[in-house]
Amino acid sequence: MKAPNKMMIAVGALALTATTLLAGCGGSSTEATPAAEPAAAEAPASIYEGTVKPADISDAVWESIVMASDEEFFQKMATGTPEQLAKVCADGVGDTDPAASAQSSLASGGTLEEWTQVWEVVLPNMVLVACSMAE
C-alpha cells in the first residue's frame, strides 16, 4: 500500500524534529538544576472532556448524555460548601469504580470496555472541577 506524499513528508518532518531535539539533549553539565514544580492541571469545561464516544451511540444521544451529566454535576458542585469541595479535591470520588459506573451506562449503548474508558476519564475530571471550585 502506497502512503500519500503529504503523509510521508509529515512523518519525515516529525522524525527530523525528534532527532534534532534528542541531539540537543546529549550535552553534559555538572550543575544541579532545581526540580520544576508540576503544573497545576486545568479544570475541564466538561466532565466528559477527553473521552471517546462509544461507537454505537448516535451523536445526538451522546450530546444529551454529556449535557445532562455536566448540568447535574456542575449544579451539585456549585451548591457544595468549600469544605465539601475541598474533601472531593483531597479524597477524589471515593471508591467509585470505573467498571461499576460503566455498568450503569450500558443502557445507552456501547460496550463495557468503551464505557469503562469513558469513566476512567470522567471520574478524574470530576475531581479536577471540584479542586478548581475549592480554590
Protein model, in words:
The chain is mainly α. It contains 5 helices and no strands. The protein has helices at residues 5-24, 59-78, 82-91, 98-105, 112-134.
Please describe the structure with a list of short key phrases separated by commas or semicolons:
mainly alpha; 5 helices; single chain; 135 residues; globular
Q: Looking at the structure, what is the overall shape?
A: globular
The major beta sheet can be summarized as:
none
Mean pLDDT over the residues = 76
Distance between the termini: 54 Å
Q: Would you count the extended β strands for me?
A: 0
Q: List the uncertain runs.
A: 1-29, 32-39
Helix share, percent: 55-70%
Portion in beta strands: under 5%
Question: Which structural category fits the helices and strands?
Answer: mainly alpha
Number of helices: 5
Helix-strand string: HHHHH
Rg, please?
21 Å
Concise summary:
The protein has 135 residues and is an all-alpha fold.
Sequence-ordered SSE layout with sheet pairings:
Layout (H helix, E strand, L loop, with lengths): L4 H20 L34 H20 L3 H10 L6 H8 L6 H23 L1
Helix pairs in contact: 2-5, 3-5, 4-5
